[in-house]
Write a structure and sequence with these properties.
Radius of gyration: 20 Å
Number of domains: 1
Number of strands: 2
Largest sheet: 2 strands, antiparallel
Low-confidence stretches: 1-10, 243-254
Distance between the termini: 19 Å
Mean pLDDT: 86
Strand content: under 5%
Shape: globular
Order of helices and strands: HEHHHHHHHHEH
Helix content: 40-55%
Structural class: mainly alpha
Number of helices: 10
């Protein structure tokens, strides 16, 4: 596995000065803001739920030892946290694992999809089989750029390998499931709220300044936060048309 801390120091750069950016405890546009300073205004049940996201990280009970390195690497590429110090990175996989272990679902299932639990088992297997077929290595051992291209192929519904797996479920719906879970866990966490300046639940206090674009009394001023994506990712790659030569076998295997 790659040390993401060293990647950050080497590759993240200020888009204006081109100077390297070191990881920080709180990245984003609102440095110094802490949404937990508002917890006295939440009701007890809301406060308990949010505090558990900070202090009660679920144990891994669903993913097995062979799946955990793959889903961890996948979540690190879908929601990179290279600009955060290691101790302030939001734990995504434990909360996905907890949902799957307890079989919490949205209450419906698409006809071309198995259960969420089986979809993750199949999807992780397909990702790892693709990595082994193309690079002869597990997905978790690939460098980040190769990982990105494999994930991009799934996003574009390109079945580069693991064809037997993809016959059992929709590759597109699996991608939506995977990304939705990763992003959902990230932005449900108070540290992500700090990053975007979100004031947390408005109940029971409510919002008070609804006109004129004025900030609430507890909000802080937005500050510039513009950085270039690291060169070991494809975050800045822009495609105008899906599925029209956006990725090549040469790009993946180089």
């Amino acid at each position: 596995m790659t040390d993401t801390g060293s990647i950050t120091e080497n590759w993240l750069r200020d888009s204006r000065t081109r100077r390297p950016l070191a990881p920080v405890q709180q990245p984003g546009y609102y440095p110094g803001y802490d949404v937990m300073g508002q917890k006295a205004f939440w009701d007890a049940a809301t406060r308990r739920v949010i505090e558990e996201r900070l202090y009660k990280i679920p144990q891994i009970r669903f993913f097995d030892e062979s799946e955990l390195p793959t889903i961890t690497a996948v979540s690190n590429r879908i929601v990179p946290q290279d600009d955060r110090t290691p101790e302030r990175r939001i734990p995504i996989v434990p909360f996905i694992d907890d949902r799957l272990y307890r079989n919490q679902i949205d209450g419906y299932r698409f006809a071309d999809m198995p259960s969420d639990q089986e979809a993750y088992r199949l999807g992780i297997r397909a990702i790892d089989e693709t990595a082994r077929a193309i690079h002869c290595m597990p997905f978790g051992d690939l460098d980040p750029l190769k990982q990105d291209f494999i994930l991009k192929s799934i996003h574009e519904e390109k079945r580069l390998a693991a064809h037997a797996v993809w016959q059992k479920m929709s590759i597109a719906r699996f991608w939506y499931l995977l990304v939705g879970d990763c992003v959902g866990v990230y932005y449900a966490h108070p540290w992500a709220w700090n990053e975007i300046g979100f004031g947390g639940p408005a109940y029971p206090r409510a919002y008070t300044r609804l006109e004129g674009g004025l900030p609430e009394p507890w909000e802080v001023d937005e500050q510039r936060y513009a950085w270039e994506a690291p060169s070991n990712s494809i975050s800045d790659l822009y495609d105008t048309h899906k599925g029209t030569g956006n990725i090549s076998e040469q790009e993946v295997t180089d």
